[in-house]
Amino acid sequence: MEFKEKIKQNYFKILEDIEKACNKIRKDFKEIKILAASKSQSPEKIKVVYDLGIHLFGENYVQEAEKKIEILKDLSIEWHFIGRLQTNKVKKALRLFSCIQTLDRLTLAQEIQKQAEKLDLKVPVMIEINIGKEITKGGIFPEKLEDFIEKIKNFNRIKVIGLMCLPPLEESSEKARPYFKKMRKLFEKIKSYMGYEFRELSMGTSYDFIIAIEEGATIIRIGEALFGKRD
Ligand SMILES: *Cc1c(COP(=O)(O)O)cnc(C)c1O
Prior knowledge:
This protein is of the alpha/beta class.
């Protein structure tokens, strides 16, 4: 099958699944934002997804994103950074992305503050939570979140708009549910004092987005279920 047709089918299947999950929790399915995770996907495929109506994309690598963003600059795409951000790439990342979803450490916050000051920007970020406390992953441990927020609260160039996570890979998607539940609790707890701009809970991938929506995700990040397998 032609890749356009395949992507279209994938998209409609995803919409169906989102609608089902939303019906289950009595939520309007329009409240769920789909972020297309486009790492290692071609600009041609990104254009197909864009034409289907997804205008929010996420990239993991600054250099790769830079090329694609240049090629696709005529489309009104909102680009989020969703990878591990090295401090020496912050300056470039701030020019390319409208949101950094993966603020995972204090040194990164310091660098964002510094570069945003120079560029005269206010940067929307999400704090990445290491919800499974995996040593191989970045992110703030759940019990350290409030302390972290306290540490960055005077960083006037950073606007925290939500939390994101990538839970441990399990053999069944249902096993991710307790992690998503924990994220939701954490989210609600700090939402009470973070102000109206704090409203996004970015969780769920191709594999477990239905469960993530049931547990309160506002943004789901879909890669392979939409584009097909990465090269
Ligand atoms: C790649 C990636 C995704 C999408 O993963 P799929 O399994 O392809 O849906 C979501 N979030 C992050 C942070 C990613 O790196």
